Amino acid sequence: MVIIAVFAGFLIQWWISCTDNEEFQALKSKSAQLEQVAQDKQQQAQIFEQENNSLQTHLIQQRSEIAIQQATIEQLQLNLAELQQSQLLQDKDLLFYQSITQGQTSSKLQIKELKLYQDTEASDLIRYRLVITQGKKINKPIQGSIRMVLSIDNNGTIEQQKLESHDLNLRHVRVLEGQIKLNENALPISIKVTLVQNKKTTLTREFKWQLSPK
């Protein structure tokens, strides 16, 4: 009986040992599988991160290219607008000179017209364009100086304001341009234009103050 009991106890211990070993091996195998899955997930995460970084870099490059293209388009549009404005001014100047030369009926020297325009940026500045013409055939240009005087009403007092002088060198048409700075509360009345040759007044004309549309 004792022998049987000992043998039975040995069998029980052997069975428990085998059972524990199988569970250990199963746990070990499961752990290895989980570790492999974790490694695979980590590799996938690294691949996804690399792809994401690559996409981010590509997106930044595309945004930079789009910004450069947009800036280029805006600059081209600005250049085109400036060219169109320049062409418009040239066309206006051409029509202006044509109207002067084609409408020239007098051969005598004359102060033909004075145009006054409001400056587009400064409210106290007035720009002017003075036209002097003569229709005779001459060998030498007419020389002298153009003097301009502005008459203003300054709080009820009439005052004279000398404007800039221009040297004149004229054959057929001469256009003189400049600007007038108005004093505060001054009311312009007229501008007197005088041609002086050899210290003598040759020609004088007075224009009433009137602004013209551009």
Offer a quick outline of the entry.
The chain is built from 1 helix and 8 strands. The chain is an alpha+beta fold and about 210 residues long. The strands form 2 sheets. Strands 3, 4, 5, 7 and 8 form a 5-stranded antiparallel β-sheet that branches.
Task: List strands and helices in order, with pairings.
Layout: H1 2-102, E1 110-118, E2 125-133, E3 142-154, E4 157-162, E5 166-170, E6 173-181, E7 186-197, E8 200-208
Antiparallel strand pairs: 1-2, 2-6, 3-4, 3-5, 3-7, 7-8
Q: How would you characterize this protein structure?
A:
This protein is an alpha+beta fold. The chain has two domains: about 100 residues; about 100 residues, Immunoglobulin-like (Sandwich), CATH 2.60.40.10. It is about 45% helix and about 35% strand. The chain is built from one helix and eight strands, in the order H-E-E-E-E-E-E-E-E. Strands 3, 4, 5, 7 and 8 form a five-stranded antiparallel beta sheet that branches. A three-stranded antiparallel beta sheet has the order 1-2-6. A hairpin with a 6-residue loop joins strand 1 and strand 2. The chain is rod-shaped.
Biggest sheet features? 5 strands, antiparallel
Q: Determine the oligomeric state from the structure.
A: single chain
The number of domains: 2
Q: List the secondary-structure elements in sequence, H or E.
A: HEEEEEEEE
End-to-end separation: 133 Å
**Molecular shape:** rod-shaped
Strand content: 25-35%
What is the averaged pLDDT score? 81
Please provide the count of β strands: 8
**What is the share of helical residues?**
40-55%
What is the rounded Rg? 48 Å
Content-based structural category:
alpha+beta
The helix count comes to 1
Low-confidence stretches: none
